[in-house]
Every structure is written in C-alpha cells, then in structure tokens.
Amino acid sequence: MTGRKFFVGGNWKLNGDKKSIEELAKTLNSAKLDPETDVVCGAPTIYLDFARSKLDTKIHVAAQNCYKVAKGAFTGEISPAMIKDCGVNWVILGHSERRHVFGESDELIGQKVAHALESGLGVIACIGEKLDEREAGITEKVVFAQTKVIADNVKDWSKVVLAYEPVWAIGTGKTASPQQAQEVHDKLRQWIKTNVSEAVASSVRIIYGGSVTGGTCKELASQKDVDGFLVGGASLKPEFIEIINANA
Asked: Per-residue pLDDT tens for 129-160?
C-alpha cells in the first residue's frame, strides 16, 4: 500500500442542467461508494451551489476554474472566496481545455494555483502533452515544465492533487495504456522527489485522466503510481460509480 488515498474527480465540463444534476446526485447518493476513495464532482460554475445542495456530504464539489484574485473588475470570472462561500472546497486548474481552447498560459495557471491554495481551496492541477508533443518525444519536457510552474506556487502539497491528462486521450476514446500512464506517473514522482522533496513525492496523489471508463479503470488503478482518476464524459453516467470503486 502506498498510503495515498485514492482520488476520483468527475469533470462535468460544459454539461448538465438542474434536472440531470439532481438525477445524477440521487444515483451517486444512493450508491455504495468505496469509503477509502475521495470523490469530487466538478460542476459548472452556475450550478456549484445547486450541486453542493443536492450531493451527499461524503461527495465533494469542485469548481472547474477560478481567477487569481479575490474580487475586482474581472467580468465573467469567479474567485476562490466565492467558491468557498458556496460550500465548495476544490477547484480544477490548468485543464488542457483552459490551456488550449482559452489560451491560459503556464504563468497564469501558476498564479491561480497560488491564490486558490492561499484561499484554502484544494487544487486539482492538470498537466499533459499534446499528440504532436508525444510523437516528437518531448512528453517529459512538456509535463515537467508544466509541473515546475505548479510546484513553484505550492507551499502545502497536502491540498494538491496532480492530474496527468495526455491531451490526445481526452474525449477521443483513445486511452493511454496502463503502462504508458504508469511510466509518466513514475517519472513525475521522480521529478517531484528531485525538485520538491522525497516526502512530497511519496505522499502527493497523481491521478490519470483521458477517456477513463468502467472498462479501462480497473487495470489503470492497479498501476502503482496511479492514485485515481479525473473523469470526463463517464462522470455524467452511472458508470462513474464503477470508476469510483475501481480500487476497492
């Protein structure tokens, strides 16, 4: 045993409405979920309050993004303070869609990580290479650079979960093989050991994201450095329960 508590996050992305969220909450609330797994649902901003009110307290809620300051003239943004005010205690930062669709830089993601942690939120910090980067053989270079910017902004690692999501595997139906995932997770842990500390390397949870399904989750979960999942589409379906229980 690694001593690291298994962690499964569901990223709902831009999906759901009150009716479907209420149905999903009923399904999750009545399901038998592995008590040894942390479960977090990433709801759209406008439904954070609603999701928090409908989900059982054993299930945590995350915002999918936030800004780097507490308040001000930043139209359309939300802050960690607002997230916490809704009873929500996690945020997903640096997701590849934020990086590649919305053009967020490493620097901005680092600033967001620092502010979210200072505000007392837990952070699911995402990293991962694109297909052309993997094919060019620079996966490590890319994910180490992304991890460094995150690490430079973390004081307390107990509030951070690192999510490795190879961009080519997100929503494409392509999953990194369990061996590919394990290889990157192992290298990330080695990087943290060298650049942060051995204690953080052995305790920080590194989760995998990228087309995780009920069918692929068991073998991925059995890899020694895969400490859970960040699940996209499957987190909106009852099969999310299977994924939560993958390590049971």
From this structure: 999 999 999 999 999 999 999 999 999 999 99
In a domain, residue 1? The reply is no
Indicate the pTM of the whole model.
0.97
DSSP 233: G
Any idea what the Cα angle at residue 173 is, between residues 171 and 179, rounded to 5°? 110
Would residue 218 count as lying in a domain? yes
Nearest to 231 by CA among 213, 218, 205, 219: 213
Look at residues 2, 4, 8, 5 and name the one whose alpha carbon lies nearest to residue 241. Answer: 8
d(CA 230, CA 246): 13
Please count the structural domains in the chain: 1
Its domain, for residue 171, covers 6-245
- The per-residue pLDDT for 212 is 94
Task: Indicate the Cα dihedral angle 14, 240, 166, 132, nearest 10°.
Answer: -70
Tokens representing residue 71 in the block: 């308040």
* Catalytic residue set: 95, 165
